[in-house]
Amino acid sequence: VLTAMQAHLDLFAAAAQRRAEDVVQVVGAALVDGDRVLVARRGSGGLAGKWEFPGGKVERGESELAALVRECQEELAVDITPQAFLGEVPLPGVVAGGEPGASTLRVWWGRITGGVLVAHEHSEVRWVTAGELEDLDWIPADRPLLPAVRALLARL
Ligand code: 9L3
Ligand code: MG
């Protein structure tokens, strides 16, 4: 019985390990300046033309905030300072071999503190007010984050 239990536990541990490695975390930045937030239109891939909060995948061994700073450098050529966590949503379709929904998009409020904005990967970037957010053609995953961004813009 003990051997069977041990085998069961080993299987469980292996599954948990596999799951942790398969999960891809994605971070996004809601970069705010005054009463506007930066939104970006994806330039290529299946989501081309859709608007998003810029960002991308956290690399293995990388912290979430390091990934946020790196992605803003790579995609927008700006230095950012993260300010606060805004919210997270499940991200279907990003998990490699795992279960849908195991991955999440976590969005942070940030400020640009250096650099000159250049859209290296997006087809367009735009500074929009709270009232302009809703009507953009968003990636479905990002849309549930809009109330938190609107609330942020309203209290700044
Ligand atoms: N994604 C969704 N919303 C976002 C971001 C930054 C990313 N705000 C999704 C799109 C891709 C995946 O996450 O399927 C990885 O993002 P990227 O590395 O292609 O930007
Ligand atoms: Mg990206």
Give a nutshell description of this structure.
The protein is α+β, with helices and mostly antiparallel strands and about 160 residues long. Helix content is about 30%, strand content about 35%. The protein has helices at about 1-20, 65-75, 130-135, 145-155, and strands at about 25-35, 35-40, 50, 55, 80-90, 105-115, 120-130.
From the alpha carbons, calculate the radius of gyration and give it in angstroms. 18 Å
> What is the percentage of strand-forming residues?
25-35%
Tally of alpha and pi helices: 4
| Structural category | alpha+beta
Share of helix among residues? 25-40%
Shape descriptor reads: elongated
- Mean pLDDT, to the nearest integer, reads 90
Indicate the low-confidence ranges by residue numbers: none
Could you state the order of secondary-structure elements as H and E? HEEEEHEEEHH
The main pleated sheet reads as: 7 strands, mixed
Attached small molecules: ligand 9L3, magnesium ion
- How many angstroms separate the termini? 62 Å
Number of strands: 7
Structure, described:
This protein is an alpha+beta fold and 156 residues long. The chain is built from four helices and seven strands, in the order H-E-E-E-E-H-E-E-E-H-H. It is 31% helix and 34% strand. Strands 1, 2, 3, 4, 5, 6 and 7 form a seven-stranded mixed β-sheet that branches. The chain is elongated. The termini are far apart. The mean pLDDT is 90. The structure holds ligand 9L3 and magnesium ion. Ligand 9L3 is lined by residues 26, 28, 47, 52-57, 91, 94, 105, 139, 141-142.
